[in-house]
Amino acid sequence: MSIRLAELVERCGGELIGSPDTQVTGIAPLTEAGVSHISFLSNSKLRAQAGQSRAAALIVSPNDDALVAQTYTGARIVTKNPYAYFARAAQYFEALTAIVPAPGVHPSASVDPAAQVDATAHIGPLVTIEAGAVIGAHVVIDAGCYVGRDAVIGASTHLFANVTFHARCVIGARGILHSGAVIGTDGFGFANEGGVYIKIPQTGRVVIGDDVDIGANTTVDRGALADTVIEDGVKLDNQIQIGHNCHIGAHTAMAGCVGVAGSAKIGKYCTFGGAAMVLGHLTIADHVHVSSGSMVSRSILEPGQYTGFYPLAKNSEWEKSAAIVRNLSTMREKIRSLEKAIKTITNQASGHKDES
Amino acid sequence: MSIRLAELVERCGGELIGSPDTQVTGIAPLTEAGVSHISFLSNSKLRAQAGQSRAAALIVSPNDDALVAQTYTGARIVTKNPYAYFARAAQYFEALTAIVPAPGVHPSASVDPAAQVDATAHIGPLVTIEAGAVIGAHVVIDAGCYVGRDAVIGASTHLFANVTFHARCVIGARGILHSGAVIGTDGFGFANEGGVYIKIPQTGRVVIGDDVDIGANTTVDRGALADTVIEDGVKLDNQIQIGHNCHIGAHTAMAGCVGVAGSAKIGKYCTFGGAAMVLGHLTIADHVHVSSGSMVSRSILEPGQYTGFYPLAKNSEWEKSAAIVRNLSTMREKIRSLEKAIKTITNQASGHKDES
Amino acid sequence: MSIRLAELVERCGGELIGSPDTQVTGIAPLTEAGVSHISFLSNSKLRAQAGQSRAAALIVSPNDDALVAQTYTGARIVTKNPYAYFARAAQYFEALTAIVPAPGVHPSASVDPAAQVDATAHIGPLVTIEAGAVIGAHVVIDAGCYVGRDAVIGASTHLFANVTFHARCVIGARGILHSGAVIGTDGFGFANEGGVYIKIPQTGRVVIGDDVDIGANTTVDRGALADTVIEDGVKLDNQIQIGHNCHIGAHTAMAGCVGVAGSAKIGKYCTFGGAAMVLGHLTIADHVHVSSGSMVSRSILEPGQYTGFYPLAKNSEWEKSAAIVRNLSTMREKIRSLEKAIKTITNQASGHKDES
């Protein structure tokens, strides 16, 4: 199977330089592209390499095009953001071969008669859908998923196998929930009485916007009274924990193993590196970037990059530095003593001078 | 739906001051309570605010009651621990509207004929229960759960959808296992022979007491030979890992993403902040509190609060501090040199004096 | 049930000293072994204790045997690596009592007619197997598992309940996938355009070798274009995240809660302590050992032990040390000032001398 560049440009935009009838069979990085591929130049440093590419066509930015064109003889698609174009083109190629699940409910699924399932939705084997749930158009729910009472799954959203989506929670359109994700589990809310914990019922929901991806085995707690909110375009990787009543702003992305404690309010367009942790009730401004492995223990009200992890070293060196870190106040005392000693010496010296 | 305060006090205790016929429709925090709500004052600093509350009734402590009563004209329930009372009252309100799952086994469930399921238990769709398992009175097992051979689920325990509870493990009464939790998976036990790992069979169980909550996607390993033990009243949040042969004392609580390596012995009434880690074979005393993101690499034999995480900073500042941390032994050397130099100077100075 | 030592030695090797007709009913550690057990001495420091053991038989190394034999009167199995022998013997004992799942497909399972299931495989209740999947000889797939299109499960591999194994992924022989594990979920790949993320289709596979164990709720991403590769003998504990296009060398082991970001290349015979994190695109050499809780933020090209976590302290002490860590550059400045001051003093002193 192959497609014409004219077709790709019609679908994904960009300015085509070269034959619209050029056929390409797939998309590949510069170093791996063969003569039937289309490739892309997303980093200007690789311009020379791009110029030598064997690919039938190249996606390039206006800035890079002139230089590439000096040596490259294939077709070019010129577009502002070649990497984004690559993503869209790859989606297009994938759609051509993807097996679209047939509409309808698998006979082994357990769908409550009081649930509303759109006729265009696909409900896979051994899925459970409870009463009052609403499953939108072109939704795909793969095998083994659970959708609770009165939950709402927006149009074209995809639940991979073995997702759990609890009662009354809501997700918008074009979302992706990966396997093992649990949405709307109870938050960790207890009152303590004489050392014993008494459960506080968690009666809020999780409300998720459009175009949200949630990774495998990620968990999102329902709100205690109010809702946990995840705005449009948020991307959560695998193994993430989002506490009750968190609010995550639009187009924020979190890498794997991140944890966000309850009631944290996180801005838009933020990024969190893997295993970063955010304490509860904090506020994080828009455009904040937290490095992997960092512990956010106070609110961050200014955009920027923030970091806090202990640098890696050979174990023997770490043992030395860690021992000193443990006793840094001793070191500070020594410095103070030194400062004092020098002051004394200097004073004596000037005293001597005065006397002389 | 609304309830009379008399009914609430009969159920939850406390001293009612005001009309027993006062009707309330729900419970809400001070700032959100409307005229038909009951609210609560759990923090004395908010006494003034409580005095102005619109709520039909207030839950207050004996200490705060007199001051609140000066301005507040609604009914009051006086009780030692208003927050705990709030939790109980909220449970009561929730129970009024909760849909109680009907007793019986869903036709799509796969229950081995050699399993014992109490007639009052609810077994949801597509659940698997293996031979020899014992399911107690009023147990609720939601869709997609798995209960292994000879496992025991105590009375009124609730397994949310898609829990895995392995063979021979035991949980007591009134427990809650959240979706995706895995109880009784094999511990990580291997013998190494020439670099290759040979699996050591994990033949112990997980034995869980009464009133234990285990969060979504949390995993608890079965013991290698002896059992992994979780005592009464323990509360584990989501995404936690408990290694084989751990022993967790009663009423200890762990926030999300905590990890406890094998054979750790943790006391009663401890708390662990999110993503804290405990190494294997350690002992943690009762009433130890570990801050979020802290690595417990040695036993803690004294109660108290313990912390160990690198403080967050702007990335540029972190880079500076991390570079110095890497070279702290150099800094220590410099201080030693300075101390020596000053000693020399001081000695010379006093030498000069002696000479003069 | 009991077995003769002759039978054990025939199966597991080793040199038997004593009666081949000695019967043992199970295997137990030195301190717990009773008169019908076989025990083992894996640590020479315990030789004296072993000599006093009540066990019917002992597994000992050639080095320890002579000393043990001075006081111990039971049978001995002499072998180079008693701990590995213990593991094998324990496997043997376990196999004697294990319930072997019957071959065949449970009637409640949903197996696509276009899947190939070996006649010796066991497919449990409520399992889904998609078209084109290939299930090898003696494979055991427990209840609630999902196996995607064209996936390949090698001979004698065991999927515990509720595993998700996605389309086109491959696992070799004798693997163990624990409950809640998700293999072949989409990697976290997006192109950013004006702040908005565009999904890059993840079309690679996960390719897993022989004798690989993957823990409960562990997630392994499929490759973006190329494959994610896990070589023979790798052991992954619970709650681990492996990003897309990672390559994990043979016989590497990772403890619980480890995270490995995309495209990391990890060598053979490595070990990672719990909650260690590895950033993306790094290279880790063979025989590298990373301590628990350590953040690997750069490639490690030399074997050895590496560590990087903030040492735990009482919270009040940590607050002091953390405040100093935040201001280490101030401390460095002070040291520089001191060095300068001393230089000045020393110069003046020698100046004085010159003048004198």
TrEMBL record, chains A, B, C:
Protein name per UniProt: UDP-3-O-acylglucosamine N-acyltransferase
Similarity annotation: Belongs to the transferase hexapeptide repeat family. LpxD subfamily.
CDD domains listed in its UniProt record: LbH_LpxD
Gene designation: lpxD
Catalytically driven reaction(s): a UDP-3-O-[(3R)-3-hydroxyacyl]-alpha-D-glucosamine + a (3R)-hydroxyacyl-[ACP] = a UDP-2-N,3-O-bis[(3R)-3-hydroxyacyl]-alpha-D-glucosamine + holo-[ACP] + H(+)
One Pfam family from the record: LpxD
Top-level class of the enzyme under EC nomenclature: transferase
Coiled-coil region(s): 328-355
NCBIfam families named in the record: lipid_A_lpxD, PRK00892.1
A molecular function (GO) term: UDP-3-O-[(3R)-3-hydroxyacyl]-glucosamine N-acyltransferase activity
Transmembrane domains' residue ranges: none
Originating species: Pseudoduganella lurida
PANTHER family: UDP-3-O-ACYLGLUCOSAMINE N-ACYLTRANSFERASE (PTHR43378), UDP-3-O-ACYLGLUCOSAMINE N-ACYLTRANSFERASE 1, MITOCHONDRIAL-RELATED (PTHR43378:SF2)
Record keyword Coiled coil present: yes
Assembly and interaction partners: Homotrimer.
Keywords in alphabetical order: Acyltransferase, Coiled coil, Lipid A biosynthesis, Lipid biosynthesis, Lipid metabolism, Repeat, Transferase
Residue ranges annotated for the UDP-3-O-[3-hydroxymyristoyl] glucosamine N-acyltransferase non-repeat region domain, each copy included: 21-91
Catalytic activity, EC: 2.3.1.191
Its biological purpose: Catalyzes the N-acylation of UDP-3-O-acylglucosamine using 3-hydroxyacyl-ACP as the acyl donor. Is involved in the biosynthesis of lipid A, a phosphorylated glycolipid that anchors the lipopolysaccharide to the outer membrane of the cell.
Cellular component annotations (GO), alphabetically ordered: membrane
Associated pathway: Bacterial outer membrane biogenesis; LPS lipid A biosynthesis
Active-site residues (renumbered): H244 (proton acceptor)
